[in-house]
From TrEMBL:
Acyl-CoA dehydrogenase/oxidase N-terminal domain ranges (all copies): 6-106
A Pfam short name: Acyl-CoA_dh_N
Gene3D superfamilies with a match to the protein in the record: Acyl-CoA dehydrogenase/oxidase, N-terminal domain (1.10.540.10), Butyryl-CoA Dehydrogenase, subunit A, domain 2 (2.40.110.10), Butyryl-CoA Dehydrogenase, subunit A, domain 3 (1.20.140.10)
Native source organism of the sequence: Phytohabitans maris
Record keyword Cell membrane present: no
Keywords: Oxidoreductase
Top-level lineage group: Bacteria
Protein known as: Acyl-CoA dehydrogenase family protein
Assigned EC number: 1.-.-.-
A GO MF label: oxidoreductase activity
Length: 333
């Protein structure tokens, strides 16, 4: 990719956005959307050699694509955790078998993070001959039916996080329950249940003491803010003329996210989510009664902004967002 951002803009404006209402209405992402992202090289974006410009440049790509179609971008985005894990595994066998196919989008991945939430793990890993046995359930698994493998987290008896590549194929030991989302429902988000599911040792990408997971998680939450910026930017572009104040806020939110430390990131993430909702509701008011019709982008963007108020959240982000919203609420006369 010689100019990833320009390519992302072309795909978002020429392909994703024109189809976004149909994707929202039917609950189905055309396979050509994801194939196009693979052909453009975007499935390998997380690999260092593909995205040498770093996180800020990758974040702009995510933002741009999300402004085209949030559901498509949401499914594609889940893939990158597996790319990073395989590339950083230090295991030549795993890298040789998986890295190139993942980067080319020939193998596509989702992610199952449920076991990493605070409290008792929702998915347990028990060491058995030749690998691990998985038991439990992981909610919010995205892209079912569009992915080949699931980068799955579990925790063992010593509270070590075990990451492994699990084939995304239902069977006697792996069950799936579809979830209905208020927005981006075409992402095919499900709950995955493991019942004595065997994972070979050669599929394990990493192990990490769970006590160390919080710091790593906090450092990686910036990219989720790009979803909100993408929705905000699309709403602002649909306003005619676009209000300068909202455009300036969008630039400021992006700069704050790019510069954020793990300590300042919750406030920056909250500001991005709040801006997405405010931009979408501004578009709704400006468009008038027609904005509540299902064939108008305003209602879709409001629902997507609602979804992004809670997606990828953590307690500090929720706290910052509640504080921000309560401070901006009008005081009765």
């Amino acid at each position: 990719m010689t100019d990833p951002l320009e390519k992302a803009r072309q795909i978002a404006d020429d392909v994703l956005f024109p189809a976004a209402l149909a994707v929202d209405a039917t609950g189905v992402i055309p396979s050509g959307h994801l194939d196009l992202l693979a052909e453009a090289g975007f499935y390998g974006m997380a690999a260092e050699e593909v995205a040498p410009a770093g996180q800020a440049a990758a974040a702009r790509v995510v933002e741009t694509l999300a402004g085209g179609c949030l559901a498509t971008t949401f499914v594609w985005m889940q893939h990158h955790g597996a790319v990073r894990a395989v590339a950083g595994s230090g295991r030549p066998d795993l890298i040789e078998e998986w890295l190139d196919p993942l980067c080319r989008g020939e193998r596509r991945s989702g992610v199952a993070l449920g076991a990493l939430r605070p409290g008792p793990p929702s998915v347990r890993a028990t060491r058995v001959g030749g690998g691990y046995r998985l038991d439990g359930a992981s909610p919010w698994v995205t892209g079912w039916g569009m992915i080949d493998v699931l980068h799955t987290a579990a925790r063992d008896e010593s509270d070590t996080a075990i990451w492994a590549l699990v084939d995304a194929v239902p069977g006697p030991t792996l069950g799936v329950r579809p979830l209905e989302l208020v927005a981006a429902n075409a992402s095919a988000t499900v709950e995955v249940t493991f019942d004595g599911h065997h994972v070979p040792a050669e599929r394990v990408t990493a192990t990490l003491p769970y006590a160390e997971w919080g710091a790593r998680d906090a450092a990686g939450l910036r990219m989720n803010g790009s979803f909100a910026l993408g929705v905000a930017e699309r709403a602002i572009r649909l306003l005619d003329p676009g209000p300068y104040a909202l455009t300036a806020e969008l630039d400021a939110c992006r700069a704050a996210l790019d510069a954020a430390t793990p300590e300042s990131l919750p406030v920056a993430r909250a500001a991005a989510s709040e801006l997405a909702m405010r931009a979408a509701t501004t578009l709704t008011v400006a468009a008038g009664a027609r904005s509540v019709l299902r064939d108008h982008h305003a209602q879709r963007l409001v629902r997507e902004a609602t979804f992004l108020l809670v997606f990828g959240s953590r307690p500090p982000i929720k706290s910052a967002l509640l504080k921000l919203v309560s401070h901006q609420r009008a005081t009765p006369a």
